[in-house]
Amino acid sequence: MSELTVPAQAGAPAAESGLMVQAEQVHKSFGHLEVLKGIDLEVRSGEVCCLLGPSGSGKSTFLRCINHLEKINAGSIRVDGELIGYREHGGKLHELRQKEVAAQRRSIGMVFQRFNLFPHMTALENVIEAPVRVKREAKVAARERAESLLARVGLGDKMGNYPGQLSGGQQQRVAIARALAMQPKLMLFDEPTSALDPELVGEVLDVMKDLARDGMTMIVVTHEIGFAREVGDRLVFMDGGVVVEQGNPREVIANPVHDRTKAFLAKVL
Amino acid sequence: MASEEVTTVRARPEPIKAVPVRHPGRWILVAVLAVLAAMFVHVLVTNKAFNWSFMVDKMFRPPIIEGLLRGTVLMTVLAMLIGVVLGVLVAIMRLSDNPILRGVGWLYTWFFRAVPRLVLLAVFGNIGILWSRIEFGVPFDTQLGQLFGIDNLQLRLFGFSSRDIITGFMAGLLGLALSEAAYMAEIVRAGIQSVDGGQTEAAQALGMSRGQLLRRVVLPQAMRVIIPPTGNETIAMLKDTSLLLYVPVTVELFFQLDAVGKRTFQIFPMYVAACLWYLFLTSILLVGQHYLERHFGKGYGPTAQARDRLRTMAAQQGGGGAQ
Ligand SMILES: Nc1ncnc2c1ncn2[C@@H]1O[C@H](COP(=O)(O)OP(=O)(O)OP(=O)(O)O)[C@@H](O)[C@H]1O
Ligand SMILES: [Mg+2]
């Protein structure tokens, strides 16, 4: 597969700190159920951070908090130095308006486990939609970029197909292209290969590897230990709504310190 | 290899020549139905009350055709157009994050679904009793004036005599359209809710506004669920235009047939003419609906289509208005 050129904006220098994501003491409850109990996490610009943990540990919830699909109850999340969902003014937090939240989401791409492509649009239309409607880009330019993005994820010959006419792996690659078309500075992946037949996992991981190689900042929730070891700069193990352990993927996988990490890895490996 | 040899050796068996199962019940049923049909035709032909020649003579008269075109067909089209647009708005209100909009939307559907269409039309027909003039300006101007010590303050920009704008046609249209909007709102709401939540999420993650995600992502997908019951609503609306008799709307098919019947003391033939006209009109719509359903059910298999039809029937019972 050819090199993926990351859109111009991607990998642009983050705030002076060089940190793309700063999460501090993030708490999130659904009713009485506290799902996130104080997550601290920093992701450097250009880093690939793999999130690992048992089912129900809050990985998806945390990811969704980063682009404000879920509202957090306490703590703070900054992306590229900018507070997500709120504005600080006069020592107080003010909720952002829907419009402002939408503007923040434009620079954060998200890829879902179940693809969530728009079924009434072709692959090409899926990719063009947001740049044209949301960013008000010229149709011709957006179309050209969409075509080259689709070609680079290996779907140059499937642009006119509807999602229903594509395999799972192809759909997920379209979904990645759709997110990239907005030229995000951060990409969130929520188990992008879990809904795929085993023989289709590779083609999606290959696209993600290319993306990582080109310097995209990525947070990837995955059970693909091989991917984490090969591509990840950092592995974060979550359980029960907290970060239990983190570090270099190779080291954590080879010598987990915490018992819960050991138990989990023993099951996955 | 061995198995092939066996098949070539064995001869092809004789075609089955079995005695088919007999259905004597069917023949009895056909006989009974034939007798009933004959009796029915006999009544149609011999009973003088039908007065066929009179009916055929009257049912194509210009006032009746005009009533059919304006009071029935045009009214159905306009009421459905307004009803659909307003219904989408009310549905969006009911699904909004804003509790005030949600409340208003709920109140709207509650009111217009709780009052029978016939009663609603009678009320709208007499709304002129409330106000002789309809004026636009500062609300509560007289009361505000009194507050500041000015007697009989009038801050009105323009106005009409209510008899000028609330004609029978307008009153009837308003009644039918507002009531239809309440039923359409429920249909559209169900349609929107039938779209997978992941679609909204994906659209939000791309930075789409609520309006954009509704217009571009959710509503196009909700159409498959919304279109079939809307076809049924249209048919129900066409029939319910006959209720305009109580507004009254004079340029309307049933009003005209009824009037001819009463004037000539030939009420029954004119009601038969009404049956025939409505049968004709709804049959046209039924054919259209058949193709619409086939188009929107494409690729979903017979079970999904049957499920859609069931939903449609449930919606029709809710929207039937007159019953
Ligand atoms: N919208 C919601 N309302 C109520 N509870 C929720 C909601 N979303 C998630 N939860 C709960 O929060 C907990 C964490 O869910 P989450 O999806 O973040 O887990 P996860 O780590 O992604 O698990 P998995 O590996 O199965 O995807 C679960 O117990 C889940 O039931
Ligand atoms: Mg999850």
Structure explained in plain terms:
The complex is a heterodimer of chains A (269) and B (323). In chain A, 46% of the residues are buried. In chain A, the strands form 3 sheets. Chain A has a 6-stranded mixed beta sheet with strand order 8-9-10-3-11-12, sandwiched between helices. In chain A, strands 2-1-4-5 form a 4-stranded antiparallel beta sheet, with helices on one face. A two-stranded antiparallel sheet of chain A has the order 6-7. Chain A is built from 9 helices and 12 strands. Chain A has helices spanning 59-66, 98-105, 123-133, 139-152, 168-180, 198-213, 225-231, 249-254, 259-268, and strands spanning 19-30, 33-44, 48-52, 74-79, 82-83, 86-89, 92-95, 108-111, 186-190, 217-221, 234-239, 242-247. In chain A, strand 6 (86-89) and strand 7 (92-95) form a beta hairpin. With 269 residues, chain A is an alpha/beta fold. The N and C termini of chain B lie far apart (73 Å). Chain B has 2 domains: 54-131 and 166-295, MetI-like fold (Orthogonal Bundle); 132-165, no CATH class. In chain B, helix 9 (168-193) crosses helix 11 and helix 11 (210-240) crosses helix 14 (301-319). Chain B is flat and about 110 Å long. Residues 318-323 of chain B have low confidence and may be disordered. Chain B has a two-stranded antiparallel sheet. Chain A binds chain B through residues 67, 69, 98-99, 102-106, 108-110, 112, 114, 116-120, 129-130, 133-134, 164, 175, 178-179, 182, and chain B through 196, 198-199, 201-210, 212, 216-217, 220-221, 299. Magnesium ion binds at residues 59-60, 190-191 of chain A. Residues 59-60, 190-191 of chain A line the site of magnesium ion. Chain A: Its EC number is 7.4.2.1. Chain A: It catalyses: a polar amino acid(out) + ATP + H2O = a polar amino acid(in) + ADP + phosphate + H(+). Chain A: Keywords: ATP-binding, Cell membrane, Membrane, Nucleotide-binding, Transport. Chain A: This is ABC-type polar-amino-acid transporter.
